[in-house]
Amino acid sequence: MTNALSVRALTKKFGEKTAVDALDLDIRAGELYALLGPNGAGKTTTLRMVTGLLKPDSGSIHVFGADVINDPIAAKRQLAWLPDEPALYDKLTAWEYLEFIAGLWGVDAKTAAPRAEELLKFLGLWDNRDERTEGFSRGMKQKTALAGALIHDPKLLMLDEPLTGLDAAVARQVKDLLQQRVKSGGSVILTTHILDVAERLADRIGIIQGGKLLAEGTLTELRGRAGGDNATLEDVYLQLVGAGAA
């Protein structure tokens, strides 16, 4: 089976600093993968290169077999990217925003309208669909942006710190939607500093530091790496990151 994402020897430097260092990474189809690491570890830089927003210095990136560098349109059609600070068009209502994003992706109105309705209802935004997003709370904006990321039904969804600043109720809605995507066959990769989220949601976890993958696997496999069968992900993470820094 073709991987949702395959990265080989991916490298990116900013001046003298190496942000991503010959990284190899595979995300399987139909899994939720959590990419963890301290600030500056290379998580966001990696995802921005996958989306085509940053050009790598070297290496290769394939999304469901499509080459991001040499065939970017084919690759981008299969993915969606939600940054930690998504930008909305404040003068548009939630419904207008989804119509606009669907149009950018070439999704016809007959397909987009029921999909937008389903997403807005699932995320608790249906009653706010005709309100301008400029008046939305952070959580409402985050959910609207997530609906926009999903309007073209991408096979791979990538999220950078999707739960930061959200209250418990909104965070639960977002987590439920991500789990639903995976159950229906989609693939999700997310970065998060909330280790409990990764521990509960992720099928596999990768820990990155200094642009390199320190460890990867299920929580059980990572516990084995860290030598503690009953260790929490926080315990495992701190041990591995501490060893990597040393």
**Uncertain ranges:** none
What would you report as the Rg, rounded to the nearest angstrom? 18 Å
- Name the helix and strand elements from N-terminus to C-terminus, one letter apiece: EEEHEEHEHHHEHEHEEHH
> How would a crystallographer describe the biggest sheet?
6 strands, mixed
How would the global form be characterised?
Answer: globular
- What separation lies between the terminal Cα atoms? 38 Å
Q: Would you tell me the structural class of the helices and strands?
A: alpha/beta
Q: Using DSSP, what is the number of strands?
A: 10
Mean pLDDT: 92
Beta-sheet strand percentage? 15-25%
Counting H and I runs of at least 4 residues, what is the number of helices? Answer: 9
Give the strand order of the largest sheet, numbering strands 1, 2, ... along the chain: 6-7-8-3-9-10
Helix coverage percent: 25-40%
